[in-house]
Amino acid sequence: MMAYIILLFLPCVFTARARILLPGYETVIPKEPYRESRRVLTTMGKECKFPFRQGGRIHHHCITILSSRPWCSLTHNFDRDRQWGFCAPDNAQPNVFIHTSRRVTDPCQVNPCQNGGVCALIPHRHSFECSCPEGFTGRLCEQEKCYETVHLRYYDTGESWGRIHLRNVEQCTCVAGEIKCERVRYTMCRSNPCQNEGTCRMITHTGKEVCNCRRAFSGPYCSLEPETECYNSRGKDYRGLVDTTVSGARCLPWNSDLLYDELHVGTTASSPLKGLGEHAYCRNPDGDKKPWCYTLNDGAISWEHCDVPSCVMSVWANLPAVKSQILRRASSRRITVPTIKKTNASKPKKKPVCGKKHKKRSSIARGRIMGGVSALPAAHPWMAAIYIGKLDFCAGTLVSSCWVVSAAHCFFRNPLKKQIRVVLGQQHFNATGLHTKTFGVEDYIFPKQFSVFNPTLHDIVLIKLKKQDGRCVRRTPFIRPICLPDKSMTFPDNYCCTISGWGHMDEKAESYSSLQEAGVRLIPHETCKKPEVYGNHVTADMICAGLNGCVDACQGDSGGPLACARDDVSFLYGIISWGEGCGRSGKPGVYTKVVNYIDWINSVIRRKPKAS
Fold first, then answer.
1. Edge to edge, what strands does the sheet with 209-212 contain?
2. Cβ(527)–Cβ(572) below 8 Å
3. Is 469 a catalytic residue?
4. For residue 485, is the peptide bond before it cis, meaning its omega torsion is within 30 degrees of 0?
């Protein structure tokens, strides 16, 4: 019998598939303050750029993902630029430091990070990295940045900028934490980039434009409103200076080189009008319910809503006497509210209640099958994490308030229902949080044709969630169902669909990952049935997707969705079922074809409970 696989996301860069870890390095703490990060070079003499982004994750050192040889990116964004090189042997190791001639197994035991920096271990390396406060930089946070009060931002050591200060046009440089400025010649600007009626001048010798802002506005382009303390409506016009999220995480700048497919200055139309720029303040460029920003969470690109109050709530909370007056008046007299007749012509078109997700990445079409990346929160709000006993794990897909669809082979041992828990809204494996919800299982149901003796056939199961307080799922931006397809729905060959899951990153991996996502193309049925692929093991109840080892499912992804979208609405087209190995060339993933089971799914979900 072929091994069951689930979800593996591999960028197609190297031929080697095994993820081999480097030997552990012994690291000790420096006697002297660290002055400058050592340059790491490739075998071709080019410089590695740290940190760099690969697969939506952020790396601060040479890595061995997809290769037994350490490699690095030659730009800060490998996902975007695809420029890389093998690290030279003398540079692959992290720096080794010495402290009173004794070796320290935990480099963070005596915090090497200065000025309040937080020390974090680099897994498997016995090395560390410092997370610096906003005003400091350097490997050990030893270098002080310069805070420009006109622009309301920090500039790094050696960085230069222009400004208008006390009606003088100046060129400034950050030198050892101090701002050094000199008056310079200027001329009128050809066009005015300054917002909110700011005036523009151009520095003659650099050609750089600088703005002089009206009162109540600030920033390099007069786009910031420092006195704003709350947001109105959904905060689409919020231009304040809050730069932390509800969990206390710091925001990434909207022009960060670590962002790629995400909504940022380079991918969002009319970025200045939406408040995006060279800053890390909370904004709402996509019409979300409140301002938000991108963050780094567990070494991956993520996002969160911001810790900024609503103006309406702030006023209401701060005026208890007014609120009390209003309530007394409302109770003492009858208030008549005029009714408005709605005509059929003005009736808005119903929005789908399924298959819609948060879109915190741009919709730029890519011509190739992309490698897997870390998914953003709420990118797949129908994902269900299914924990069976203490050891077994599968994925599933929420299809209605109380029902999850998964792979039948996950349950072929007939586990006790009390041993199963289903977690919705989960981002990191086996981690609950603010947006997660955990359910027990009332029942799980196989189709009549399923047999444990041939579990690749009819590999589908329906899981009924136990109600809590009389109901199952309450829809949130992070938990909502996918749409089920009609019986007649088809997607053409080579159509790009999406797989997602927490499965192993390669065949030899032992741990699960944060939620990953990848695009895979549907493969013609006759191609998958070729003898050199899977032959007659593939039936009419199966779909094949992904080929040539680029992207695949792997151990732990079983039961998860193959989601195909039409008009921005996602449909459950397949269920991750089986395959040979993980990401092997010429061996695609095989998925249960959901449209063939729609009648059965609907009959079970709509079945009335038997009288007790």
1. 186-188, 199-203, 209-212
2. no
3. no
4. no
pLDDT of 28 above 50: no
Structure confidence at residue 226 (pLDDT) = 95
Phi, psi of 81 (to 5 degrees): -100, -25
Sign of the Cα pseudo-torsion (499, 502, 508, 509, in order): positive
pLDDT exceeds cutoff 90 at 38: no
Single out the catalytic residue among 374, 514, 558, 570. Answer: 558
Cβ atoms 534, 528 nearer than 8 A:
yes
pTM of the model: 0.79
CA angle at 174 for the pair 170 and 176, rounded to the nearest 5°? 145
Instruction: Determine which one of 459, 506, 552, 557 is catalytic.
Output: 459
CB count within 10 Å of CB 267 equals 16
User: Which pLDDT does position 318 carry in this prediction?
Assistant: 58
558 noted as active-site residue: yes
Contact 463, 422 (CB under 8 A): yes
Beta bridge partners of 458: none
Alpha carbon distance 581, 6 (integer Å) = 9
H-assigned helices in 218-368: 311-318, 320-332
Query: Which of the residues 59, 126, 151, 409 is marked catalytic?
Result: 409
pLDDT of the residue at 103: 47
Percentage, residues of the chain above pLDDT 90: 58
Taking only the tens place, the pLDDT of each residue in 537-585 is 999 999 999 865 445 455 557 899 999 999 989 999 999 999 876 556 6
The helix/strand count (H/E) of the chain reads as 5, 33
401 given a catalytic annotation: no
